[in-house]
Sequence to fold (307 residues):
Amino acid sequence: MSMVERPFLVPGMSNDARIRVYRRVFAPEEDQQEKMEVDSYVVVTTRYVVVLDTLLCPEDMAAIMNEMRKEIIGRELLVVNSHADWDHCWGNNYFTGNRKATILAHDYCVTRMQSDEAKAGLQEYQNKYSYFQNVTLISPTITFSDRLTIHGGDLTIELFSAPGHHPDHIAAWIPEIHLLLAFDGAEKPLPLIGDVDGIQPMYNTLQRFIALHPQRVLCAHGKTTDITIVMQNLHYMREIEQRSRALLTTHRPTDSELEHAATLIHYSFNDVVETQSDITDADREFYTWAHENNVAYILRWLMHKQD
Ligand SMILES: [Zn+2]
Fold:
């Protein structure tokens, strides 16, 4: 087994000392294709230290909270889960027992985290890798459906529902510094749309992000700070929709054809990322799969509309 990775501070991502970006690399030696990276944030306001996303395991949070020893003095600790996907909330159980903290999330995050699917997912990873032995699924303690505002004193953190990737997905807007924490609501090189029911919400979420006019956008995956990632994600969806509409005027694809949906609309993963040269082999495999899904969902969404 490789040396256990720990989250590290990525200074270039934030231009404000109160916002700290931590990155966790997951790169199991036995399975290099699983390699991925995910970011979480710590926002230090005058009243609160707010941890947004808890990464992969309680040890990740122990490392970050150790770095926050001084900041936590005189401030209350709050934790936020952007959604119930494993790479964003499996560190939650660090915040139990004598380290108990309020964990904020969307209402539906609780349902997802308590689902059989979540339990099976954890079991699978615990069987496969040694990193997750100390993970238990800990649900959020305070939830909301539309929005919830943290009044931190000098900074305000507006949490709002931002579905599309998943129905429980939320984003965070910090108006004083025009910073959008998009989490998985936008992603480089392309967004991961949850399913057919996620198409319209994803469009709405991306448009809402743009309407905020952020100066800086941070995504959980993708190492970007630029608002253009949101525009690119929107453009990408519209491109698929346009090509799909053109196809559907002459042909209604079968289920088996939809397994190669990108070929059907002549829009390969290479077409999508033609200008981006910094894509690793593991990313290429993962995002090719995600792109196929996105195209199939959009085609099915348009076919449902025709019915
Ligand atoms: Zn994610």
Remarks:
- The chain has a mean pLDDT of 94.
- The CA atoms of residues 120 and 126 lie 10 Å apart.
- The first helix runs from residue 58 to 67.
